[in-house]
């Protein structure tokens, strides 16, 4: 059963740990979802286009630019959380048919109950493992795949391999795009291997991140935009530079990868554990 604490905070045990929905003190109707103390999502029910987390804004910018404004996209979201990006797409691209795959069924129920979807949103949520669900999806069925899966604070190993990325590429339309969240820190071994892995199936790619993260100076999120046609570099660079927390677009991925090899199932590992205290200043 859910418990309500001070300031209407909701605390509930779900399959992946302790879920907390914390009201945003600055925005009425907005909440941050934490799982075992790790921020997973921020949702503004009154304005789904308000995106609090900088890496989510970078992912949204990529989604904005892969098709003309307002055009519906067939979207597959691997990893649900509080469904921040599905809500964003539902409002900015009305009529988009969207499927979300989230492994934590009790979490899905909490989100459905406490954070209703936007009116007329065409969002279907399936409770399943992301890779298992992907393998059952028909070829070329999506214009967009969003990969943002974390078990606690780490991406599971079976979602980091060449074999997995080939499945992502298989379900994408030839002109479709993968937008992936990769978390890493110095010396970026995991991120370099992930970029090399993604490019085996989706060779036209770029990275968007904080300059310090790209240089391997601190832990953070790197957003990968990858497909089979040239990405919208100029527009994405302008969006990243104009953000509240300016980011940079990296296009020289051969230099970034630096010889790192693609990762197969037999060698795949989960993403690194974030440094202690990274999320201590939570709302």
TrEMBL record:
<dbReference type="GO" id="GO:0006596">
    <property type="term" value="P:polyamine biosynthetic process"/>
</dbReference>
<protein>
    <recommendedName>
        <fullName>Spermine synthase</fullName>
    </recommendedName>
</protein>
<keyword id="KW-0620">Polyamine biosynthesis</keyword>
<dbReference type="InterPro" id="IPR029063">
    <property type="entry name" value="SAM-dependent_MTases_sf"/>
</dbReference>
């Amino acid at each position: 059963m859910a418990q309500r604490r001070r300031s209407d905070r909701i605390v509930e045990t779900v399959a992946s740990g302790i879920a907390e929905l914390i009201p945003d003190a600055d925005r009425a109707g907005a909440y941050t979802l934490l799982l075992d103390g790790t921020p997973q999502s921020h949702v503004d029910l009154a304005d789904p286009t308000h995106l609090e987390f900088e890496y989510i804004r970078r992912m949204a910018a990529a989604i904005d630019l892969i098709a003309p404004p307002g055009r519906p996209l067939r979207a597959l979201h691997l990893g649900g959380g509080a469904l921040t990006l599905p809500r964003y797409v539902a409002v900015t691209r009305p009529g988009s048919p969207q499927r979300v795959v989230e492994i934590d069924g009790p979490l899905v129920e909490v989100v459905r109950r406490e954070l209703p979807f936007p009116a007329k949103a065409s969002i279907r949520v399936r409770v399943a493992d992301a890779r298992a669900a992907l393998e059952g999806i028909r070829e070329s069925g999506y214009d967009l795949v969003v990969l943002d899966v974390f078990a606690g604070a780490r991406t599971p190993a079976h979602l980091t391999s060449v074999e997995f990325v080939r499945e992502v590429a298989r379900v994408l339309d030839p002109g479709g795009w993968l937008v992936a969240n990769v978390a890493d820190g110095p010396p970026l071994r995991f991120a370099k291997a992930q970029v090399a892995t993604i490019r085996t199936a989706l060779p036209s790619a770029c990275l968007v991140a904080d300059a310090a993260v790209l240089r391997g100076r601190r832990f953070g999120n790197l957003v990968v935009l990858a497909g089979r046609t040239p990405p919208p570099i100029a527009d994405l660079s302008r969006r990243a530079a104009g953000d509240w927390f300016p980011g940079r677009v990296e296009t020289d991925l051969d230099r970034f990868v630096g010889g790192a090899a693609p990762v197969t199932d037999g060698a795949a590992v989960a993403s690194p554990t974030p440094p202690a205290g990274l999320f201590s200043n939570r709302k």
